[in-house]
Design a protein that fits this description.
Number of domains: 2
Radius of gyration: 20 Å
Largest sheet: 9 strands, antiparallel
Structural class: alpha+beta
Strand content: 15-25%
Shape: globular
Helix content: 25-40%
Distance between the termini: 40 Å
Length: about 400
């Protein structure tokens, strides 16, 4: 593994993703298969004035062992103290970093009901900390460095070692690490995305219409909705980027104003179970029908997680000619695949995507059209065959995307 590449990756994570402030602590949740990168991030954090880095290690193989051997009635068991610790870190103002590289086929063939129950249980205990983290209390970032089993899934014709090396080569370009000063390159890229979301917020479209390649979907938008993307800000005004890489601008759809049919354009890897070639029919915001060529039972359990899991919490726009899309690869990893195509997300919305949302009560958010759920699961719907229009209250139409590319300049 290239030491210099790891150092550049770590620097971008610390200075751009987290924008770690001097004197700020860092909490890292990481798989043991990502240890080389985590060590470099830890070193960069300390070099940038971090007083303490805490790493919570996990091993995806233990999850598989649990599904293989644990009693079937034990999947609501959870170490509550762990999430209480994460909550205390967030309350103190610690930055939060998630480092994963999950085997896409980890839980293939295992009981989708137990998978859903395990995830629901974790989400329930993580929720208090998650609400603080994602709603702007601290900087947070998600990254997925190459790992052996993930690389082997993408490049099955190579040996595992060759596949991992090949994936690192791809990742170097996608994460803009092939420049002498990737931090500056990232800052410019995030600024460009900022211009896109500013334009869309100012336009304030009442509805977005996605059509083409089997999709004909109208997504109503809440009044005073806000588009975001690329960089974010904490409530204290600190810039950060929640995802590396990122190519999207996003907002929250109105939870009750989504109607029509949408087809997926890339597989969805739901915690080690693949859902492929699926379609969904929405009426008044809810999924009323669905089908999938693979993973239909998993899809069913996912949208049954709670009463709002079958409604949308995010709509995101990504040009087809994004670097990730142009790689020509399917990554079987949501962080990368969602940044290759326009996408939607089941479940919870980001409060900050509606004016005043951070300060609203739960009841006020529902009234504003903002969805709330234990889950937030992105799925890809964009391609070069899908067009998008913005529709104003008076019915006038403004092209947003044509053939998968931006139809407006900023």
């Amino acid at each position: 593994m290239n030491k210099k590449l790891l150092e550049k990756y770590a620097e971008v994570i610390v200075k751009v993703g987290l924008n770690l402030q001097e004197g700020q602590r860092l909490f890292i949740s990481a798989g043991i298969n990502t240890a080389p990168l985590v060590r470099e991030v830890t070193a960069k954090a300390y070099q940038n004035g971090c007083p303490y880095v805490f790493v919570y290690w996990n091993d995806e193989n233990l999850k598989k062992i649990r599904h293989e051997y644990a009693p079937r009635d034990s999947f609501e068991e959870f170490s509550k103290w762990l999430m209480e610790g994460v909550l205390k870190c967030a309350q103190r103002g610690d930055a939060y970093l998630s480092v994963t590289g999950t085997d896409p086929d980890l839980l293939a063939g295992y009981d989708p009901e137990l998978i859903a129950l395990e995830l629901k249980t974790r989400a329930k205990y993580f929720r208090p900390a998650q609400e603080l983290i994602v709603n702007g209390s601290v900087q947070w970032t998600v990254v997925c460095p190459p790992t052996p089993k993930w690389a082997a899934k993408i490049f099955p014709d190579n040996s595992i070692a060759e596949a991992e090396e090949k994936l690192w080569g791809v990742m170097e370009k996608l994460c803009r690490l092939n420049y002498d000063d990737p931090v500056s390159i990232w800052q410019k890229h995030l600024s460009d995305l900022g211009k896109r979301h500013t334009y869309l917020t100012e336009k304030g479209f009442e509805t977005l219409h996605f059509y083409g390649a089997g999709t004909d979907l109208k997504v109503g938008m809440p009044k005073n909705h806000i588009w975001k993307g690329g960089g974010s800000k904490t409530l204290g005004g600190v810039d950060f980027s929640a995802n590396l890489p990122t190519e999207e601008v996003f907002s929250a759809p109105h939870r009750e104003k989504v109607d029509g049919v949408v087809r997926s354009t890339k597989p969805l890897n739901y915690y080690g179970n693949l859902i492929e070639n699926f379609s969904l029919t929405f009426k008044n915001g809810c999924v009323v029908d669905f089908s999938a060529e693979k993973g239909e039972a998993t899809l069913a359990k996912m949208i049954e997680t709670d009463e709002n899991a079958n409604m949308l919490g995010e709509v995101a726009l990504v040009p087809h000619r994004s670097p990730i899309s142009e790689s020509g690869l399917i990554f079987y990893n949501t962080l990368y695949d969602e940044n290759a195509a326009c996408h939607l997300a089941f479940g919870s919305a980001y409060r900050a995507c509606v004016e005043g949302g951070i300060e609203m009560s739960a009841e006020e958010l529902v009234e504003a059209g903002i969805n709330d759920s234990l889950i937030h699961v992105d799925f890809m719907i964009g391609s070069s065959d899908v067009d998008i229009d913005g529709i104003d209250a008076d019915g006038s139409i403004t092209p947003i995307m044509r053939n998968g590319e931006w139809a407006f300049t900023v």
